[in-house]
């Protein structure tokens, strides 16, 4: 594999007698969108959990920039420049949309709780900057006029965009998106695809798990296909679409 931006090397995760991820290997190049697709139960979300430290591999490893990160705590992996969204939207419903994005921006804050008491002017300046930065990411998501709206009252499509805006506020090097188009209508999915393309244009690397094949084929540089936790195909969208193993996995023999 050389020294790719992110590499999964013979990654395996077993839960008792069930092997959710089985000897999985692939690489993600910097500044690209790599999508992971596969039937339900193929091990895609478990793979995300292994990458981000929410699960420890049974064997194999994850490398980021050549450094082994598998087995580290989630907050340490996040500090390396990782951010993710979840299959089920994770927002703070009682907080406004702007406040939700500010939560992501606080990961870059220099003022801890103690310092905010002993140096209040510094804290107030930084808080103003965090608010301004959060407003910028809310605008990036096309939600500039929704900053004061409680996040829980937003439609699902806006909540998914909000979750991505909050992740981007942490200034990630790698953004992991877990089924961002789930539950969206055709128009919302189109907006989501455009947003992912803009994120790539900013130089942020994206690892995407998604079931919407039209979206995957539109935004991806490379596609990894998994079935029963194992890789069955890897290549460009055009190459994967013609792969007989992929056709068999999705359509049956």
General description of the model:
The chain has helices at residues 44-52, 74-79, 97-105, 113-118, 120-140, 156-169, 186-201, 213-219, 237-241, 244-251, and strands spanning 6-15, 18-28, 33-37, 59-64, 67-68, 82-84, 174-178, 205-209, 222-227, 230-235. It is an alpha/beta fold. It has two domains: 1-81 and 175-252, P-loop containing nucleotide triphosphate hydrolases (Rossmann fold, 3-Layer(aba) Sandwich), CATH 3.40.50; 97-171, no CATH class. The strands form two sheets. A six-stranded mixed β-sheet has the order 6-7-8-3-9-10, sandwiched between helices. A four-stranded antiparallel β-sheet has the order 2-1-4-5, covered by helices on one side. Strand 7 (174-178), helix 7 and strand 8 form a beta-alpha-beta unit. The longest helix is centred in the middle third of the chain and has 21 residues, at 120-140. Keywords: ATP-binding, Nucleotide-binding, Transport. This is ABC transporter ATP-binding protein.
Main β sheet profile: 6 strands, mixed
Q: Briefly, what CATH class of the largest domain?
A: Alpha Beta
Question: What would the average pLDDT be, to the nearest integer?
Answer: 89
CATH architecture of the largest domain: 3-Layer(aba) Sandwich
What gross morphology would you assign? globular
Total count of helical runs of at least 4 residues: 10
Uncertain runs: 112-117
Question: Rg to the nearest angstrom?
Answer: 19 Å
Distance from first to last alpha carbon: 32 Å
- List the secondary-structure elements in sequence, H or E: EEEHEEHEHHHHEHEHEEHH
Q: Bin the strand percentage.
A: 15-25%
> What is the CATH superfamily classification of the largest domain?
P-loop containing nucleotide triphosphate hydrolases
Summing up helix and strand content along with how strands pair, one would put the structural category as alpha/beta
């Amino acid at each position: 594999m050389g020294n790719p931006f992110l590499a999964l090397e013979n990654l395996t995760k077993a839960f008792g007698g069930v092997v959710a991820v089985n000897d999985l290997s692939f690489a993600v190049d910097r500044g690209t969108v790599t999508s992971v697709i596969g039937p339900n139960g193929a091990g895609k979300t478990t793979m995300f959990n292994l990458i981000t430290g929410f699960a420890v591999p049974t064997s194999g490893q994850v490398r980021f920039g050549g450094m082994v990160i598998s087995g580290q705590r989630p907050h340490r992996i996040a500090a390396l420049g990782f951010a993710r969204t979840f299959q089920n939207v994770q927002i703070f419903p009682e907080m406004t949309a702007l406040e939700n994005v500010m939560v992501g921006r606080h990961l870059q804050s220099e003022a801890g709780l103690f310092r905010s008491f002993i140096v209040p002017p510094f804290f107030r300046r930084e808080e103003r900057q965090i608010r301004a930065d959060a407003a910028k990411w809310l605008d990036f998501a096309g939600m500039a006029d929704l900053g004061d709206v409680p996040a829980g009252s937003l439609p699902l499509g806006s909540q998914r965009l909000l979750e991505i805006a909050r992740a981007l506020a942490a200034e990630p090097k790698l953004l992991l998106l877990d089924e961002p188009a789930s539950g969206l209508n055709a128009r919302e999915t189109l907006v989501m695809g455009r947003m992912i393309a803009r994120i790539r244009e900013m130089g942020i690397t994206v690892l995407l798990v998604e079931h919407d094949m039209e979206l995957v084929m539109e935004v991806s540089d490379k596609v990894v296909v998994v079935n029963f936790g194992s890789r069955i195909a890897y290549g460009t969208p055009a190459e994967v679409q013609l792969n007989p193993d992929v056709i068999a996995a999705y359509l049956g023999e």
